[in-house]
Amino acid sequence: MKFKLRPLERKWVLYDVGNSAFTLLVSTIMPIYFNTLAGSQGLSDVDYLAYWGYATSISTIIVALCGPIFGTLSDFPGWKKRLFSLSVLVGALGCAVLGMMSSWLWFLVLFVLAKSAYSVSLVLYDSMLTDVTEPERMDKVSAHGYAWGYIGSCIPFVLSLVLVLFYEPMGLSVGTAMMLAFLLIAVWWVLLSVPIWRSYEQKHSLARQRERGDGTFRRLGRVFSELARDKKVLLFLVAFFFYIDGVYTIIDMATAYGTALGLDTTGLLLALLVTQIVAFPAALTFGRLTGRFSPDRLILVCIGAYFLITLYGMMMQQVYQFWILAVCVGIFQGAVQAMSRAYFARIIPPEKSGEYFGIYDICGKGASFLGTTMVSAVSQVSGSVNLGVGALSVMFVLGGVFFVLATRSRRTEERARAGGLGEVC
C-alpha cells in the first residue's frame, strides 16, 4: 500500500526542506567563502581547516548547553511554537548577515551564532514529530522529511551556485554574489517554516506551567536521573553520540576537507549536489524497508557503511574519488538520520519530547564536537588531513557497539513487560 502524507505531516516535512538549505550552505559554499577570506588574510590550508572545525565545535558546545534548556521549556503548553519561531528568525538573520562579512574572525563569530540557532530550532522541530503523527507512521514520516529536505534544498542551492560560479558574466563582484547567495538561503528557510508555524498545535505537554525558570533546571535534573535508570534510552544516546557525530563531521567538513586537499572547487560543489540528489530516493527507500526489516538492523547497516566510507576517505586524492565518496554518503546519510529520529521518538515519553530531544540534539544534527575536534587536531599534529578523516572510523565502531547493547536492552524490557502482562491475564 502506497504511503501518503497527511496535511500536517506535509507541513512538518516542509521545514526539513527549508532548514536543509542552510545545512547544504554550511557544507559547501560557506567553507569555500571562509577559505577565500582566510587565505587573503594569511591563514594556511591546515589552519583554515582547523579553525573551521573549532568554530563548528564551539557551536556544538553552545547547543549542548542551551538545547536541553530550550527543549525543557518547550514542553510547557504553547511554548514550543514560540521558541521554534525565535530560533528560526535568529538563525536566518545570522545567515543573511554572514554574506556581508569581510573579516574571517567575525565571519566565524556570526557563523557560530547562526548555526547554534539553527541547531536549537531542530531540537524543537524534531520534538514536534510526536505531535504531528502516530508512532507507527514515524519511520516513514521522518524519512520523508529528510528525503524531501535533500531534494528540495537543491533549488536554492543551485541558484546560489549560479551566483557564485558565474558572478563575473552577471556583472557582480564575488562579495556581492556571496551576499545574495546567503540572503537567498535565509529567505527560503523562513518562508518554508511558515506552514508548520501556522498549523502546529502542541498536543503533548506538561499540565503545569508554573515551573519555568528554576523549575526548568530541576526537571532537567530529573530527566538525567530517569536516563540513568532507563538503559534502552541511555545506551541509544551513547551510541547515537558516537555514530551521528561521525556522520555530521563528514557533512560539516566535507568541502573543507576536499579544498584542503587541493581539489577543484566546482567539482566539489557538483559532487555534493549529487549527494543531495542520491539521498532523496535512498531515504525514501530505507523508509519503505522499515516495513520489511527491523529499523534496528537497518541502522546497523548504515553505521557499518559509514565505517567503510571513513577508511576510503583516508586514501582519497583525486576529484573522481570525491565523487564516489559523495554518492556513498548520499545513500546512507538521510537513512541513518531519519531512522534514528523515529527510533528515539518511539522510546521516549511523548509529553516530555522537548526535553528528551534537547538531550538528543546534544549529539544530534549539527552536533559534531568530538568529530570535528578530532579531525582538526589529528590533521594539525600529523600534517595530513587524510589521517584526520580516517580517525573518524573509531566513532562508528563505538557507535555500532553501543547501539547493539541498546537494542538488546530494549528487547529485554519488552519481553519483561510482555511477561508481566501475561501473568496479569
Write up this protein.
The protein is an all-alpha fold. The protein has a single domain, classed as MFS general substrate transporter like domains (Growth Hormone, Chain: A, Up-down Bundle). The chain is built from 19 helices and no strands. Helix 7 packs antiparallel against helix 15 and helix 14 packs antiparallel against helix 19. It is globular, with a radius of gyration of 21 Å. The protein starts with 6 loop residues before the first helix and ends with a helix. About 1% of the residues have low confidence.
Look at the structure and give the mean pLDDT: 81
SSE pattern: HHHHHHHHHHHHHHHHHHH
Number of helices: 19
The structural class is mainly alpha
Q: Helicity range of the residues?
A: over 70%
Main β sheet profile:
none
Distance between the termini: 35 Å
The CATH superfamily is known as MFS general substrate transporter like domains
CATH class: Mainly Alpha
Q: What is shown here, in short?
A:
By secondary structure, the protein is mainly α. It is 80% helix and 0% strand. Helix 2 crosses helix 12, helix 5 (104-127) runs antiparallel to helix 16 (353-360) and helix 8 (154-165) runs antiparallel to helix 13 (265-289).
